[in-house]
Specification:
Elements (H helix, E strand, L loop, with lengths): L1 H23 L7 H28 L2 H4 L1
Length: about 70
């Protein structure tokens, strides 16, 4: 899910960087190090969310689920 969410987010943010660079004439852009940093944060957040969901699922009473 992290990869599927990262791809469109990367494309949209790259477009926003290009528009901002053209409008403001500032030297900004999506660098490779920045994109890897954001990707690693995305993976980390998805991993943590999955771990929290698994912990809540383990604590749930099966009778309450059904």
């Amino acid at each position: 899910m992290a990869i599927l969410g990262y791809i469109p987010g990367f494309l949209i943010s790259s477009g926003v960087y290009n528009v901002a660079r053209k409008m403001t004439l500032l030297p900004i852009g999506m660098t490779q190090s920045r994109s890897w940093f954001v990707f690693s944060l995305t993976l980390g957040m998805c991993f943590m969310a999955g771990m929290i969901a698994i912990r809540k699922l383990n604590d749930a009473d099966p009778a309450d689920i059904f």
